[in-house]
């Protein structure tokens, strides 16, 4: 099992609709660590670390639209090497 980290930026109607909490619940279900946080431009940044297949599953979930209350227009991703290891999936403010 290869451990990877991916940074994703989710654009659309993704703030004020429980997006970070739904993302946290999905990430924990997949056994991932990292965080979700709102950005000033109205997007949500998601860092997902863990088994490559599980990270891909979370990215697919984000691209599929996340929670029903959200509208995802696009998801941009890039590989990431965090400065510190994450031991849980946080919601950051």
Automatic annotation (TrEMBL):
Domain of life: Bacteria
GO molecular function, a single term: acylphosphatase activity
Short name of one Pfam family: Acylphosphatase
Keywords carried by this UniProt record: Hydrolase
Enzyme Commission identifier(s): 3.6.1.7
Keyword Protein biosynthesis listed: no
PROSITE patterns for the chain: ACYLPHOSPHATASE_1, ACYLPHOSPHATASE_2, ACYLPHOSPHATASE_3
Acylphosphatase-like domain sequence ranges: 5-93
Catalysed reactions listed for this entry: an acyl phosphate + H2O = a carboxylate + phosphate + H(+)
Record's keyword annotation contains Hydrolase: yes
Active site annotation, chain numbering: 20, 38
Enzyme class, broadest EC rank: hydrolase
InterPro entries named among the record's database cross-references: Acylphosphatase, Acylphosphatase-like_dom, Acylphosphatase-like_dom_sf, Acylphosphatase_bac, Acylphosphatase_CS
Similarity-based family: Belongs to the acylphosphatase family.
HAMAP family named in the record: Acylphosphatase_entero
Official protein name in the record: Acylphosphatase
The species this protein was found in: Trabulsiella odontotermitis
